[in-house]
């Protein structure tokens, strides 16, 4: 029993949102007319309200905020590795200079 999730295009989502905004009908009414789950339409409306220009980026595309988070995570990992390397190097040279002074 595998059911595939239905995917909707960005244009369809924007058209549904426009229909809710322009007709004055409730989200539940529009969702019922189109055979959508009310919570799906509610989520689309919230996404559009929060980031109208970047809502529904499509398959494999990230919003600018998601791209920024990914870039910062990569940079954070690189900086951790550099810090660990410098700590190990400093402890190595500290132990060899102690051996030289004895």
Architecture blueprint of SSEs:
Layout: H1 10-23, H2 27-34, H3 38-50, H4 64-101
Helix pairs in contact: 1-3, 2-3
Relevant terms:
4 helices, 102 residues, 72% helix, 0% strand, single chain, Arc Repressor Mutant, subunit A, 2 domains, mainly alpha
Summarize the model shown.
The chain is mainly α. Helices cover 72% and strands 0% of the residues. It is rod-shaped, with a radius of gyration of 26 Å.
Explain this structure.
- There is one protein chain.
- The chain is mainly α.
- It has 2 domains: 7-59, Orthogonal Bundle (Arc Repressor Mutant, subunit A), CATH 1.10.10; 62-102.
- It is 72% helix and 0% strand.
- The chain has 4 helices and no strands.
- Helix 1 packs across helix 3 and helix 2 crosses helix 3.
- The radius of gyration is 26 Å and the shape is rod-shaped.
- The model has no long low-confidence stretch (mean pLDDT 84).
Task: Determine and state the CATH class of the largest domain.
Answer: Mainly Alpha
CATH architecture of the largest domain: Orthogonal Bundle
User: What string gives the helices and strands in order?
Assistant: HHHH
**Average predicted confidence as pLDDT:** 84
Helix content: over 70%
Give the helix tally: 4
Oligomer: single chain
How many strands in all? 0
Globular, elongated, flat, extended or rod-shaped: what is the shape?
A: rod-shaped
Structural class: mainly alpha
Beta content comes to under 5%
**Domains counted in the coordinates: how many?**
2
Question: How many strands, which pairing sense, and closed or not: the largest β-sheet?
Answer: none
Radius of gyration: 26 Å
- Using the coordinates shown, work out and report the CATH topology of the largest domain: Arc Repressor Mutant, subunit A
